[in-house]
Amino acid sequence: MPARAEDTPLNQIRRSDRAITDPAWIIAFLQRAPVGVVATACDNKPFLNTNLFVYDNERHLIYFHTALKGQTRTNIERNPQVCFSAFEMGRLLPADVALDFSVEYASVVVFGSATIVEEEEEALRALQMLLDKYFPHLRAGSDYRPPVEEELRRTSVYRLEIESWSAKRKVVEADFPGAFYYAD
To answer: How far apart are CA 177 and CA 165, in angstroms?
Structure first.
């Protein structure tokens, strides 16, 4: 690993023992992860937007959407370079020494450029993919009315072209003493 952080590729995992390099694992993770965080910047000011998203396996990209106007859109119009992250937390792992406390986790970080989808057909396809991911038991036309042109004019749909990604995970043995889930 390079001695200086600025000489290290953005997608290089520091802890190689936790790195996941299998593209199939990364894709499966992106398909199941419920929420992602998009990082943008404008005038050297960082901005995060937590959002629903969908990975398009056919086109190898990520779609997400926001309101028509807002900081995410402004930032992407000025600087399309973004970073995207999705993660999941496993069990908390207590220890006898505070420094050794830990957590199980898995995460994917994507680097790329985002653009606003201008073509109506692609925007509708992306929005339908989002609906299908989060509401797979409901069908357009029978359970709900699909989006219409007027609604598209109030929505910004983004295409994140993936330039690189990285993934990592920490999992310990099933019978780790005292391990528990945070949710409760």
So the answer is: 33
